[in-house]
Amino acid sequence: xxxxxxxxxxxxxLGALRHNVRVLANTAGRARLMAVVKAGGYxxxxxxxxxxxxxxxxxxxxxxTAGEAEELRAGGVDAPVLVLGxxxxxxxxxxxxxxxxxxxxxxxxxxxxxxxxxxxxxxxIDTGMGRLGIHPSGAPALADxxxxxxAPVTGxxxxxxxxxxxxxxxxxxxxEQLTRFRSTARQVRERFPGALVHAANSAATLREPxxxxxxxxxxxxxxxxxxxxxxxxxxxxxxxxxxxxTIASVKVxxxxxxxxxxxxxxxxxxxxxxxxxxxxxxGYARALGxxxxxxxxxxxxxxxxxxxMDQLTVDLGPESTETVGExxxxxxxxxxxxxxxxxxAGLRGTIGYEVVCGIGARIPRVxxx
Length: 369
Hints:
This protein is an alpha/beta fold. Helices cover 29% and strands 24% of the residues. It has helices spanning 14-28, 38-42, 46-56, 66-74, 91-97, 107-116, 139-149, 173-191, 202-207, 341-348, 352-357, and strands spanning 8-13, 32-36, 60-63, 81-83, 101-104, 121-124, 153-157, 196-200, 215-218, 243-246, 249-253, 258-259, 265-266, 271-276, 293-296, 299-304, 312-315, 327-334, 337-339, 365-368. Strands 1, 10, 11, 14, 15, 16, 17, 18, 19 and 20 form a ten-stranded mixed sheet that branches. The chain starts with 7 loop residues before the first strand and ends with a strand.
């Protein structure tokens, strides 16, 4: 692992991303693959991620806002784009200007999209997520209104609430949603026979063949994280992002000396403490203090003390020989050792999505491959 002059950087392995897209496309079979690149490509960089995904077989791209669609177009990405989030005000015209399709679920949204000249509309059905979408009972009337307005309805969709839960009381709810959706989607397609029917996110794509329909919408799996929180390798997915910093300072502490705010850690013996110039302002959560490990020279080293805004400290060990400038891997691999997003998520009581999306803007993304 080679350090760079920056205090920290995030290599983004586009070769790994292409591999993941090919795995997902193969899993989807005859269904089309939408790679979701919202939130800056889940923190990886939207334009490089989008280009790599399309190169590897994604035929659609998903974003949350009209502005994100514009970013892709400005970056030279010309694949079909669907704005998955709510569109309001001037965003309708911006989406149309970017040639992006949009999601609608109300009469007002339908009228606004038609007035703005949006090239394609996907009617969203709320089958149990409880967020955006029209109740299944209202979908036929909305579809009739779309016919009357001459609206270009090109898709009908829903979103699963529990696709990542394979055990427990909610494990069967995805099947209930799918049953509701199939019935409602059939009625919409009677009005718009060519509309794409899509529901599956990453978890549903990997878990349930019946949910793949005409298109799947994969987000987190594109970036090599498991939607189930288990080992990504179990699904033949490869982590795309790493976070690499460096040792900025080394000092010797003695037995019972404390390190960091609140004195939450005291040395059990004399040891060498390395300071790494990354903190919670960079997305390395405060909750990881005294819990996580980083990789130094291919070995796991414990993070000790409270995470500061801009710094964290690690116990290099009394016999260590690492000095200032030694690379430190906070996320990713070094030799045979690896720190995964799933590992860090487990320590924080969250999900891998939040780990990769939360890597701060002060850490430059460096696309490779």
